[in-house]
Amino acid sequence: MLFSRSFDSFRSPFSLLGAVRTATKRAGGTVHNHGGSPGKRLGVKKFSDQAVIPGNIIVRQRGTTFHPGPHVKMGRDHTIYAVTPGFVRFYQKERMRGPRKFVGVVLERGEKLPRDEETLGRSRYCALVQLESQAP
Prior knowledge:
The radius of gyration is 35 Å and the shape is elongated. The mean pLDDT is 86. Helix content is 10%, strand content 26%. It has one domain: CATH 2.40.50.100. The protein has two helices and eight strands; from the N terminus they run αββββββββα. The chain is an alpha+beta fold and 136 residues long. A four-stranded antiparallel beta sheet has the order 1-3-6-5, with no helix packed on it.
């Protein structure tokens, strides 16, 4: 009897400490980048037939989803912005590898793009002011 009591105490190393706490939940993995970076706010900023002034951003994009048309330019990060005041127009032109999307600015609200230059002539914007028509 004396031998069995001393043998029981050596059987479990935790019998002297009491209850042992075990995990109730499985271990979870770690998260990479902790939710990622914020969005870059890309996309179309001015839609068709909206008025723009020089410097207004029309489209922010990665790559050339939209190509620049008349009276717009493309920045180094492919942002398309207006160069003249007018109204935004989106249109497609057939190219060698299929249709290509363009963005342009027209000077009058009713104009369409692409412009028929043979009959209508070129669309020009000259920021000139008639000095004789202004009263002193």
